[in-house]
Design goal:
By secondary structure, this protein is an alpha+beta fold. The chain has four domains: 230 residues, Heat Shock Protein 90; 128 residues, Ribosomal Protein S5, domain 2; 71 residues, no CATH class; 131 residues, no CATH class. 31% of the residues lie in helices and 20% in strands. It contains 16 helices and 24 strands. The strands form six sheets. Strands 1, 2, 3, 4, 5, 8, 9, 10 and 11 form a nine-stranded mixed beta sheet that branches. The protein has a five-stranded mixed beta sheet with strand order 12-13-16-14-15, with helices on one face. Strand 23 and strand 24 form a beta hairpin. The longest helix has 27 residues. It starts with 12 loop residues before the first helix and ends with a helix.
C-alpha cells in the first residue's frame, strides 16, 4: 500500500477547542501552578547561571498601571527565554515540545491546565539575548476557539508577537528569562486567589501547594512565592523561599530514615505532636509516591495507607513515601502509572516494608501500642466461639509441593489469603496425576506457576485450619483521625480490629450503667470492662461473618468491602436492646460478687 494514498489525522479548530476543554477538565484546579513552575525550572536548568531564580508573585506592572489595582498571578524565571519565532511556534502549538526536556510534552500541561480557566488571556513576556517580546493567548468567544491575539499596526499589519520595552522587564531577569501572567476568566478577576477547594487560605496557598507538590526543589534553583499579596505592609507581605516537602519533613521530624525494597526506596518520618495531640499542621501522617522529585497520590486521614505498612498506632504522626524505580507520570500529572498505563501497585511495597520495618520506627509504634492498649477480650471471645467455629465458613487451601490434594484449576486458589473462590464448599479434588517437567521445585516456583504444566492437573495443596476470628486492639481517636466518630476499623492483612475507645456510643453505654451503681472506681472499671467486652464480641463476630462471605457468587468486591467498612462496624455496635440485656445480666452477677467480697472484708 502506497503512502501516497495516506492522509494524516488533523484537528479542525472546533475539534481542538473541544479537545482542550476535555483535557482541561481532567486537570485539578491547582494543576497550573505545577505546570508553570515546572516549565520555569526546566528553562533555568538549560542555562549555566549560578543564581537561577523563579518567583511566583503578582504582576507588579499590571498592578501599578491599573486603577483600581488588578491582582494577576505571574511566574517569572531567569531561564533561557524565547525568541519571537519560538514564542509564536511553541505557544500556539498544542503539541510543541520545545527544547529537550524532562517530559516529552513540555508546555502542553501548562496550556491545557490553564487555557480553559483563563479566557481573558495567558500573557507571555520573554527575553532572549536582551530582546523581549509579548504574546497573548486567549479564548475567542465569537468563533469558539483558542489562539494568539494579534495587534494591528498603523500600516495594516497584524503582529502576533509584540516587542516589549526593557523598562517592563522584571528585576529577576537580566539577559534571558520569561514571565507568564494569568488574566483569569475576566480582566477584573483576582487570579492570586486560591482556586476552589485549595487548602491554605489566600495568604499562603501557593507556598503550601508547591511545598507539598515538590519533594525537593533543585539546589541550583531559588524558588520563592508571595505570602499575603493583598497586604500593604512588607512585614506581612513577603516572598517566601521554598525548599520542598523533604526539607519540611527533615527539619520538623523526630526521627527519619529510608528502607530499600526490591524495586523502590521507601522513606519514613515520625512527626511531633502539636498542642492538640495531633501531628502539627500540614505535616500530619500520610502516604504518597515520589517520581522525579514530585509527590503523587497523597493519602491521608481516612484514606491513609499507613496501616498496610504496619503502622496501626500513630498514623497521624508517621509519613511514608514510596519512590518506585520504574514508573511514569500520567498525562494529567496527577498520578503514577506503569509502562502499560495501568496503576502502580502498593501491595508489594507494603508487605516488604512490614517485613523490614526499621528498628526506630518499630520501637516508636510499640511504645504507642503500650500507651493506648486496653485489656483485650480476644482470648475469652475465642473460647466462647470455638464450639461454633464451623458456622463461619472459611475453608482454605495452602500451596504445598508435597500436599496430599490437588486443587481444581477452576477453583482459583487465592495464595495471598488462602481463601477458596469456588462455591460454598471446596470441590472434591481430582485424583493425583503423574507430574511433568522440572521436579518438585520450591513453593515460590509453585506460586509463579512454573511447575503447573498441565492445567488439568491443578496445583498441589494441603488443607489448613484457619483462624476465623480477628484480634481486637483498642486505640484512642486522638491517635488516628480514621477513627473519628467511628467505632472500629478492620485491617485485613493483619486480621486485626482497631476499636475506638473514645467512640461516643461506647461511652454512652458506660455512663448508662454507671448511673445504676454507686460511684465506686472499682465498679466503674468493672462496668467499662464489660461494655468494652460486649463491643469486642459484636465486632469480632461481625468481621468473622463478613469474611465468610468473601468470593460468594452474589457478593462482589465492592459489597464485600462495604461489609467490613468502618461505617458497617459502627452500625453493628449501635445495637442497644441485646447489648443492654447482655451487659445487665453479666454485671448483675459480677457486681453481686464484688459487693459480697467487699462486705466480707469489712
Amino acid at each position: 500500500m502506497s503512502n501516497n494514498n495516506f492522509q494524516a489525522t488533523s484537528v479542525n479548530p472546533a475539534g481542538l477547542t473541544n479537545l482542550i476543554r476535555n483535557l482541561g477538565r481532567d486537570c485539578m484546579p491547582s494543576q497550573f501552578i505545577r505546570e508553570f513552575t515546572k516549565n520555569a525550572m526546566e528553562a533555568c536548568q538549560r542555562t549555566e547561571l549560578k543564581d537561577r531564580k523563579i518567583v511566583i508573585d503578582l504582576n507588579e506592572t499590571i498592578y501599578n498601571k491599573t486603577n483600581p489595582h488588578l491582582y494577576k498571578i505571574s511566574f517569572t524565571d531567569n531561564g533561557d527565554g524565547m525568541s519571537e519565532d519560538q514564542m509564536i511556534n511553541l505557544l500556539n502549538n498544542l503539541s510543541a515540545s520545545g527544547n529537550k526536556n524532562e517530559h516529552a510534552n513540555y508546555g502542553v500541561g501548562a496550556k491545557i491546565s490553564a487555557l480553559t480557566r483563563n479566557h481573558a488571556g495567558i500573557q507571555y513576556e520573554s527575553w532572549k539575548d536582551g530582546v523581549g517580546h509579548m504574546v497573548l493567548i486567549k479564548y475567542n468567544d465569537e468563533h469558539d476557539i483558542y489562539g494568539i491575539q494579534g495587534a494591528e499596526t498603523g500600516d495594516g499589519r497584524t503582529l502576533y508577537a509584540v516587542k516589549t520595552s526593557n523598562e517592563l522587564k522584571p528585576s529577576v531577569i537580566t539577559n534571558h528569562g520569561t514571565r507568564v501572567t494569568l488574566w483569569g476568566m475576566t480582566e477584573e478577576q483576582d487570579t492570586m486567589l486560591p482556586p476552589e477547594g485549595i487548602i491554605g487560605g489566600k495568604d499562603s496557598w501557593i507556598a503550601l501547594y508547591l511545598n507539598t507538590r515538590f519533594f525537593q526543589i533543585p539546589e541550583s534553583i531559588e524558588l520563592s512565592a508571595r505570602i499575603a499579596y493583598y497586604r500593604d505592609s512588607n512585614k506581612h507581605s513577603y516572598l517566601a523561599n521554598l525548599k520542598g516537602q523533604k526539607n519540611v519533613l527533615d527539619t520538623k521530624s523526630l526521627k527519619r530514615g529510608s528502607v530499600r525494597v526490591s524495586d523502590a526506596t521507601i522513606y519514613w518520618w515520625i512527626m511531633p505532636k502539636g498542642a492538640d495531640g495531633h501531628a502539627r499542621e500540614y505535616v500530619k501522617g500520610h502516604t504518597a509516591l515520589i517520581n522525579q522529585n514530585e509527590i503523587f497520590d497523597i493519602s491521608d486521614s481516612r484514606s491513609n495507607r499507613a496501616a498496610f505498612f504496619g503502622v496501626i498506632f500513630g498514623r497521624d504522626q508517621v509519613i511514608i513515601y514510596v519512590e518506585p524505580d520504574i514508573a511514569e507520570q500520567n498525562t494529567a500529572r496527577t498520578n503514577l502509572i506503569k509502562a502499560d498505563g495501568s496503576p502502580v501497585s502498593w501491595n508489594k511495597w507494603q508487605d516488604e516494608f512490614r517485613e523490614n520495618m526499621p528498628a526506630e520506627l518499630k520501637e516508636f509504634l510499640d511504645s504507642l501500642m503500650n500507651e493506648n492498649s486496653s485489656k483485650s477480650h480476644t482470648d475469652s471471645i475465642r473460647d466462647r466461639l470455638k464450639n461454633i467455629k464451623e458456622l463461619y465458613r472459611l475453608s482454605r487451601y495452602k500451596p504445598s509441593v508435597t500436599g496430599p490434594l490437588f486443587a481444581d484449576p477452576k477453583s482459583e486458589v487465592t495464595f495471598d489469603t488462602g481463601h477458596y473462590r469456588g462455591g460454598e464448599t471446596p470441590p472434591t479434588p481430582p485424583a493425583p496425576q503423574p507430574r511433568k517437567g522440572k521436579g518438585s521445585g520450591s513453593i515460590a516456583e509453585l506460586l509463579l506457576g512454573e511447575l503447573v504444566e498441565n492445567e488439568l492437573e491443578g496445583t498441589r495443596v494441603s488443607t489448613i485450619e484457619p483462624d476465623p476470628f480477628p484480634k481486637v486492639q483498642w486505640q484512642s481517636a486522638s491517635e488516628s483521625e480514621t477513627l473519628t466518630d467511628r467505632a472500629a476499623e478492620y485491617i485485613p492483612n493483619q486480621n486485626l480490629i482497631i476499636a475506638n475507645k473514645d467512640f461516643q456510643g461506647l461511652n454512652d453505654l458506660i455512663s448508662y450503667f454507671s448511673k445504676s451503681y454507686s460511684d465506686s472506681p472499682e465498679l466503674t472499671q468493672i462496668i467499662r470492662d464489660e461494655v468494652m467486652g460486649a463491643f469486642e464480641q459484636l465486632l469480632t463476630e461481625s468481621v468473622a461473618g463478613a469474611l465468610a462471605l468473601k468470593n460468594r457468587t452474589h457478593w462482589n468486591n465492592t459489597e464485600y468491602d462495604a461489609a467490613l467498612s468502618k461505617e458497617a462496624l459502627t452500625t453493628v455496635v449501635m445495637q442497644r436492646y441485646w447489648m443492654i440485656s447482655h451487659i445487665k445480666r453479666v454485671l448483675g452477677n459480677k457486681i453481686k460478687g464484688f459487693n459480697e467480697l467487699m462486705a466480707a472484708q469489712e
